[in-house]
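Quick one: structure for this chain?
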Amino acid sequence: MSMSDLVAAGAPELPEGYFYRVRPTHLTAGFFVDVRRQRRFFGSSEMASVVVYPSEYASAEEAIVHACRSAHARWLVEEKERTAYRDAERFLGDHDPRGGR
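Got it. Here's what it folds into:
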């Protein structure tokens, strides 16, 4: 199944350079659905991940699309938190009340 097939089935579209990966959990009858970012030269980085159990849904497609939506939502929240942390990092350190060193 391609990205366009997932999007046509109802999964959120990801920006350029990002993709979904579906992989087995190996311990249970579930799957991990990841939002991943393509690295510059090779490989990818996991941005968010959720576990889905297809037996809890009417179809496997419905389960995977639901997991894509959940992983996408988790990625957006985590990205917002990372951005807020980076913005606040400039305030690290001692703050002299006289404004000097």
